[in-house]
């Protein structure tokens, strides 16, 4: 659990940094540098992984707006169930 939480926190911090700079993972300097190091003979999956996940800035803006206006639904039970499921060994 500690490793997955640490990784989640690192991902969240990285996402916040990208959000604050207005960039997506694919357009960030790290993403583009990594993508350029992937050889042209690499599989499409490897190229996509090197570029990072696509970020839908319009969707993010809509969610932020819903949160700010108090209209974003949160299902605490679903969140708790998924957190427990992530921590259980397969």
UniProtKB/TrEMBL annotation:
Keyword Transcription found: yes
InterPro entries: Anti-sigma-28_factor_FlgM_sf, FlgM, FlgM_C
Sequence segments annotated as region (Disordered): 13-51
Record carries keyword ATP-binding: no
Pfam families: FlgM
All residue ranges annotated as the Anti-sigma-28 factor FlgM C-terminal domain in the record: 38-84
Keywords, sorted A to Z: Bacterial flagellum biogenesis, Cell projection, Cilium, Flagellum, Repressor, Transcription, Transcription regulation
Superkingdom of source: Bacteria
Residue spans of biased composition, Low complexity class: 26-51
Family note: Belongs to the FlgM family.
Reported function: Responsible for the coupling of flagellin expression to flagellar assembly by preventing expression of the flagellin genes when a component of the middle class of proteins is defective. It negatively regulates flagellar genes by inhibiting the activity of FliA by directly binding to FliA.
Name of the featured protein: Negative regulator of flagellin synthesis
Taxonomic path: Bacteria, Pseudomonadati, Pseudomonadota, Alphaproteobacteria, Sphingomonadales
Primary gene name: flgM
């Amino acid at each position: 659990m500690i490793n997955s939480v640490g990784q989640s926190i690192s991902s969240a911090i990285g996402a916040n940094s990208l959000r604050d700079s207005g960039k997506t993972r694919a357009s960030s300097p790290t993403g583009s540098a990594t993508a350029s190091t992937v050889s042209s003979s690499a599989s499409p999956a490897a190229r996509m992984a090197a570029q990072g996940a696509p970020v839908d800035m319009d969707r993010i803006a809509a969610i932020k707006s819903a949160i700010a206006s108090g209209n974003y639904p949160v299902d605490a039970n679903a969140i708790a169930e998924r957190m427990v499921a992530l921590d259980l060994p397969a």
